[in-house]
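for ur thesis appendix - Phosphotransferase. copy paste whatever u need, i formatted it the way the template wanted (i think)
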Amino acid sequence: MADHLRKYETLFTLTPQRMRMIVEAFKEYLELGLEKPKQTVPMIPTFVFGWPSGEEKGDYLAVDLGGTNLRVCLVTLQGDGKFEITQSKYRLTEEQKQEDGQKLFDFCAESLKSFIDNSLMESGQMKDGQKLPLGFTFSYPCSQQRIDHGILIRWTKGFGAANTEGEDVAAMFHSTLEKYQLPVELTALINDTTGTLIASHYVNPQTKIACIFGTGCNAAYMEHVKDIPKMKELNIDENADMAINCEWGAFDSDEHEHLPRTKYDIIVDETSNKPGEQAFEKLISGRYLGEILRLVICELIDEGVLFLGQNTYKLENPYAFDTAFLSLMESDPTDELLMIIGIFSHFFAVETTLAERQFFRALAKLIGRRAARLSACGIAAIVSKMGYLDEGCSVGADGSLYNKYPGFADRIHEGLVDIFGERGRNITTYHAEDGSGVGSAIIAAMTKKRK
Ligand code: ADP
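the 3d part is after this line
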């Protein structure tokens, strides 16, 4: 397997020099997105003005439509950077992601209703006749002109619900909330990345950037309104700051080829429900890493290198290989790699040799490391654009990939040193506060204060 591994090492390894080139290109995309509408990296103004004071207080509801789950929460902000949260989670089915958008929002409202009726009313956390502000965390690229409005630009993360792209999702959700007569006031439509930025700053004011590495991948940061040329005609106070939702997953989704894509990445793209979109995200996020590894394995099966004489049909199903398997493979502590034996025999009904298992583990490492180093390029682009390198800053990061993939954060930090040299150590990522729940509540509170 050693020869094969060398080939994949060459394909999946990013040199520091290549990373610096990516950072330079990335910066240009960020600037362009701020300058004009409808750019590859859309740099969406969020209408969240400035940082929270840390003193925001009160009870807020949040609905979070994530890539995998729907979550409803009650957040009690206590001021002084403190909060409490009560929540329920509902798994989204693949059908729900594809059916009519209004039905998807109906499901959100039904889940919120059952949370209020069965959990909050029962426990006395909410009382009859009480109406609470609601933040709706909707983590798909939307263009906003106000905080309680947002036109869905396009679905990402495998969603494709009909009659939703090009529509005002806040209005759609609002009408559903009315239909179910819920005691809430939809105050803010936010993106989880923006929420993570605000929630992380609420508890750690060193935070300047937030990133999500989950089903998808995205970042947000605080920009000076005077440096957002495309907002000039809105006549917003030039001294104000506004959070920008970069939607950086779209970086390089155009005719330029800044990213070193392998043929497996190209297959992932071409067979996805959105070919040509989210080029950066497809090399990084949890939805795709397992699939990249599966495609390499399938190629070696076709070449007669792996699993000769065994039935490999289970491995041939697209997306059969979850990114969580890469985590498990990398963290297998046994010499025999028993965890990897288990994954392949239990989930895919194939036997593996020790040499093959070592190869799979090495391959997972290459794919996981490339994802982390590309993430470092994105962070470096924002750091460099905003001039944060010398004074340093914290980056709040969230999502299963960041939280559960062994060594993901260390690899980002190594990548930052490869890009910036020793000064790269001034930038540190940490596990962020719950952006889509707490962040949404803080933004709802900040919005109430502004009104
Ligand atoms: P979301 O982004 O949908 O809100 P998550 O942050 O949990 O939710 O991300 C889900 C993604 O993370 C899925 O694509 C899944 O494959 C991946 N994932 C789940 N568990 C792990 C793990 N242990 N290691 C790496 N990736 C994981």
